[in-house]
Design brief:
The chain is α/β, with parallel strands linked by helices. It has nine helices and seven strands, in the order αβαβαβαααααββββα. Reversible hydration of carbon dioxide.
């Protein structure tokens, strides 16, 4: 806590004075973040640092395993953050960011580790599909680290699918007003890999080239023309 107190003092004395105008503007005009970022609560994964975002740039939701529970009427922090970001703040991009050496994914691979943590075990049920994919579709002789990495990357894709079950997301996808992104952060190298929905692969984005995206509204076919044609034929 002493280190945190020193950090607060440094912020107030050295950082805030140089950004005081920005903070006053944010306090006066409110926030208009560019994107919602759903990332892991792991202390080594810092969304603002990874993206070099400033105050007001990102609306961040962090939890164990960067999980997005499928939509339900039960209230939850992640679901509320998604709904608020889209409907109140008007974000047009959502990023689900997984990472290497993820403790939550290790727990999936070794459920015995979760016996003293029933709440964590229950939470991770939202990632079981990722673990099942790796167990069935990946080689049996994967090393432990490669298996955890594979589960973490598949988990990003699973959570993107869960995102699409949320009414606020589904509605914006239907009108091409929102784009979904899947990222994977390698802690050791600092590399970011981005999920390309068109090829179903993670790639390293290249500066100056278009950023691959996971899901766009254009990926979703509209049934309205079909309905209109049916009605016209009646």
């Amino acid at each position: 806590m002493g280190d945190l107190l020193k950090g607060i003092s440094s912020f107030r004395g050295a950082v805030f004075p140089n950004q005081s105008a920005l903070y006053r503007k944010l306090a006066r005009e409110g926030q208009q973040p560019q994107a919602l970022m759903i990332s892991c609560a792991d202390s080594r994964v810092m969304p603002e640092t990874i993206t070099q975002a400033g105050p007001g740039d990102l609306f961040v939701c962090r939890n164990a395993g960067n999980i997005v529970p499928p939509f339900s009427t039960l209230n939850g922090g992640v679901s509320s953050a998604i709904e608020y970001a889209i409907l109140a703040l008007g974000v047009s991009d959502i990023v689900v960011c997984g990472h290497s050496d993820c403790g939550a994914m290790k727990g999936l691979c070794h459920p015995e580790l979760l016996q003293p943590m029933p709440n964590v075990a229950a939470w991770l049920r939202h990632s079981h599909a990722a673990y099942s994919i790796v167990c069935r579709a990946y080689p049996d002789d994967l090393s432990e680290s490669d298996r955890v990495r594979a589960v973490a990357m598949e988990n990003v894709v699973v959570q993107l699918d869960h995102l699409k079950t949320h009414p606020s997301v589904a509605a914006k996808l239907a009108t091409s007003e929102i784009t979904l992104h899947g990222w994977f952060f390698d802690i050791e190298t600092g590399e970011i890999q981005v999920y390309d929905g068109a090829t179903a692969t993670f790639t390293v984005p290249q500066e100056g080239e278009p950023l691959p995206v996971a899901v766009t509204g254009r990926d979703r076919p509209h049934v309205m023309p079909q309905i209109a044609a049916t009605l016209a034929a009646e």
